[in-house]
Amino acid sequence: MTRRRSSGQSAIEYLIVVMLLSLALAAGPNSPLQMLVGAIDARYQAFTEAISRP
């Protein structure tokens, strides 16, 4: 196996691991990704409400 081919193989393996990790974070009705987005949304709403006050 040449050096270039083995480098390409590791890139594919890295891509598969990243895809599986992102799928695990996004799967399910109460996923960690959904909870993170909800927390950011709640903080942003509190921030915009606080700065809109006179």
Protein model, in words:
The chain has 54 residues and is mostly helical. 83% of the residues lie in helices and 0% in strands. The chain contains two helices and no strands.
Strand and helix map with partners:
Elements: H1 3-26, H2 32-52
Poorly predicted runs of 5 or more residues:
none
Based on Cα principal axes, name the global outline: elongated
Q: How many strands, what sense, and barrel or not for the largest sheet? A: none
The total beta strand count reads 0
The succession of helices and strands, N to C, reads HH
- Strand residue percentage: under 5%
Summing up helix and strand content along with how strands pair, one would put the structural category as: mainly alpha
| SS field, number of helical segments | 2
How helical, in percent, are the residues? Answer: over 70%
Q: Radius of gyration in whole Å, from Cα?
A: 20 Å
Give the termini separation: 68 Å
Name the average pLDDT: 87
